[in-house]
């Protein structure tokens, strides 16, 4: 697909290329946050959700991707329980901690990375 876009852009004037690029961008879902796929735990119930995390949305559930409908799950000062891939979980924790410090309390940290200096962790 990238090749098709590149070949198409070679045949366009500068103005046509800009219009094509803006049309392409307008079709993207831009929330001003980051999306995560996760399983939300609510008591015994497990629900697969698409999360949106950002300053405008807090931690929100994307209800409908076509209409961009979202519902707030939690702000940055309330905990929720999720199951997700380890790398996504780390990214979500760091992002949430950053927004917490930015929007709730700049003097308090809600997440810290464990530090270990043992030979096992360094591969020695």
Automatic annotation (TrEMBL):
The keyword NADP does not apply. Residues 1-124 form the FERM domain. PROSITE patterns: FERM_3 (PS50057). Residues 1-17 form the signal peptide. Keywords: Signal. The keyword Signal applies. InterPro entries: FERM_domain. This is FERM and PDZ domain-containing protein 4. It comes from Liparis tanakae. The lineage of its organism: Eukaryota, Metazoa, Chordata, Craniata, Vertebrata. The gene is Frmpd4_1.
